Amino acid sequence: MTAAAIASPAFALDSGSSGRIETIPEFSDASSVVPRVRVFLPSGYDSNEQRYKTLYMLDGQFAFEGDSDGINFEADRRVTRLMDAGTIQPTMIVAIDNLGDDRFLQYMPESIYERASPELRSTVEREIERVGATSLSSNVFIEFLQRQLKPFIDANYRTSSDRLDAAIFGASMAGVMSGAIFVEAQETFGLGASMSPNWAIYDERFIDHPSLPEVWRDYFSALGPPEGRRFWLDHGTEMMDAGMVPHQLAIAESMTNLGWRRGCNLQTRVYDAGHAYAQTAFQMDELLAWLLA
């Protein structure tokens, strides 16, 4: 079955870019897990037989140029430009929308909640109660990615099914979730990026939890040696990102103890900037160039 046959509607990008975006209707009955999935196919996809790397993007409603009244990552345009320059390998994008008001439920890793101190559990439960829910849904989301979405994409598009050609990306709370997916679905995703992630699990009160960096350290130790995989993590020095320092240091130390090497298969960047998301994600090109090379 061809991509054009199973996905609709499709539309071409404007003349400043190239390729097309398709919306996959097959998962409309899974709207409680993910509201919408779209696929960006770069120019030339229909005229060749090559296999493509796949970039899976969380917060998918902000993925493409033209999304959300211009507040977006422009990932389609960036990937096209980097491919045209020969900087990255041929890549398609799968944009997975978040759950809106229930975004925290979708992106707060249940494994971290289970390991958390009573104080952090209270913070998480406060947010669950705020949105009128009774539990987190991140485990269901990870299972959906592994057992439904990724197999569907590999079966219906010309992807490389190798985990080393499948990347998961997220920013802010979605950056926490992309890190969790990289750990918990490591047989599926061999490339990962956490941009400006909220490792501290801040809510509007910005409460620090001193035991949390050690939780992250232990959690990432499940990765084992790199075996060809790559992981990017960054944070700024201003706003809420200033509180991410001990968490990123703990995660990086855990990974280097397992044989991951900075600049080789692990990038840990610190920027003199604030929180990066959508239109403020100035490091996006650098991240994509390294991750998808």
Provide structural commentary.
The chain is an alpha/beta fold. It starts with a helix and ends with a helix. The chain has helices spanning 3-6, 75-84, 103-107, 110-115, 118-130, 138-156, 173-184, 212-220, 245-257, 284-291; strands spanning 10-12, 20-23, 37-41, 53-57, 91-96, 166-171, 191-195, 230-236, 266-271. Helices cover 34% and strands 16% of the residues. Helix 2 (75-84) links the parallel strand 4 (53-57) and strand 5. The protein has ten helices and nine strands. Helix 2 (75-84) crosses helix 10 and helix 8 packs parallel to helix 9. The longest helix has 19 residues, at 138-156. It has a nine-stranded mixed beta sheet, sandwiched between helices.
Quick recap:
The protein has helices spanning 3-6, 75-84, 103-107, 110-115, 118-130, 138-156, 173-184, 212-220, 245-257, 284-291; strands at 10-12, 20-23, 37-41, 53-57, 91-96, 166-171, 191-195, 230-236, 266-271.
List the helices and strands and how they pair.
Elements: H1 3-6, E1 10-12, E2 20-23, E3 37-41, E4 53-57, H2 75-84, E5 91-96, H3 103-107, H4 110-115, H5 118-130, H6 138-156, E6 166-171, H7 173-184, E7 191-195, H8 212-220, E8 230-236, H9 245-257, E9 266-271, H10 284-291
Parallel strand pairs: 4-5, 4-6, 6-7, 7-8, 8-9
Antiparallel strand pairs: 1-2, 2-3, 3-5
Helix pairs in contact: 2-10, 8-9
